[in-house]
From TrEMBL:
PANTHER family: PI-PLC X DOMAIN-CONTAINING PROTEIN 1, PTHR13593. The lineage of its organism: Eukaryota, Metazoa, Chordata, Craniata, Vertebrata. GO terms for molecular function: phosphoric diester hydrolase activity. GO terms for biological process: lipid metabolic process. Signal peptide: none annotated. The gene is PLCXD1. This is Phosphatidylinositol specific phospholipase C X domain containing 1.
């Protein structure tokens, strides 16, 4: 798995971009009819972070600097 390494040790962007475009075709046949939201998909735990915006609250667990900046820069 992964991209092919060229002579300059950089990953082939074309290969990496298309490496997983058909990942569902490799699923075990008994999973074909399972709704996508019932599957545990590795690496998908942060998929909803795209909805963050300027009005999203800053967690109290974040650094004091980040909390102060949030108050100073509305």
């Amino acid at each position: 798995m992964g991209g092919q390494v060229s002579a300059s040790n950089s990953f082939s962007r074309l290969h990496c971009r298309n490496a997983n475009e058909d990942w569902m075709s490799a699923l075990c046949p008994r999973l074909w009819d399972v709704p996508l939201h019932h599957l545990s998909i590795p690496g998908s735990h942060d998929t909803m972070t795209y909805c963050l915006n300027k009005k999203s609250p800053i967690s109290h667990e974040e650094s004091r600097l980040l909390q102060l900046l949030n108050k100073a820069l509305p």
